[in-house]
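Preliminary data (for renewal application), orotidine-5'-monophosphate complex.
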Amino acid sequence: MTAPTATFGQRLRTAMAEHGPLCAGLDPHQSLVESWGLTYDLHGLRAFTGACVEAFGGHVGIVKPQSAFFEVFGSAGIAVLEEAIRDLRAAGTLVLLDAKRGDIGSTMSAYAAAYLGSSASAPADALTVSPYLGFESLRPALDAAADNGRGVFVLALTSNPEGPSVQHARHDGVSVAESMVVGAAAENAAALATGDLGSTGLVVGATIGTAAHDLGLDLAGVNGPLLAPGVGAQGGTPEGLRRVFGDALPNVLPASSREVLAAGPGVPDLRAAVARTNEDLARLLH
Ligand SMILES: O=C(O)c1cc(=O)[nH]c(=O)n1[C@@H]1O[C@H](COP(=O)(O)O)[C@@H](O)[C@H]1O
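Predicted structure:
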């Protein structure tokens, strides 16, 4: 498979300008699948995913399928995920696979090959990665992404209530979250020099209030995309994003899964939910 000619950061910037910043989550929760009148089995998973692909493909800048909801169904579920990744990308929509991979170097190399490598079976445009074995343990994923025009999103300040106990902890006076900010900024330095958005993003929850500010983090200085999950179902609001991100707002990808998906099963209703959210976000940004 040939690597895209533009970097992930460049392609994401273009997609955000064309469609708006919303990252639509593709999370086939049992309760959502059933609320669409589908059975929670492989047949229901296929129908749910197919409707999302039809609704979002070509209409949303970037879609984030959550791997766990497909893994639940074993290899047949993963085949549904791989088909969705291929179909969304064929429709011109970027795909951020949310699998939060993180391991020691040699194993991380295999994950990097599986999801970001030149021979990956259904490569996404970007992958969420977990840095809690140390930022540098992600090196194989960072390098594979750079070599193949793809991106990674490193967990920094997550939306769950347990996150701060690890992410706010300090070592030699530097918070764990700040070490992710510094690491990502270093990866994106070359893009900064050419005026491009970098391809190493961070995950910073829409629900964290003033934590980034309180920790003294320079999120704008990362020069990379900032995925902000938690809009909608977890209580994050477009207005609240300004408080969380300040001057880094133009690089933010607000992510919403359950709230957007609750508009289904109709494809026009899903598209309308996406358009509404993007309009709210556009008002916030201007
Ligand atoms: O990496 C993520 O996407 C993520 C990070 C985080 O800090 N919090 C978080 O909720 N997520 C993901 O965002 C999705 C939840 O979206 P909602 O249904 O909109 O709450 C799930 O796929 C989570 O795994």
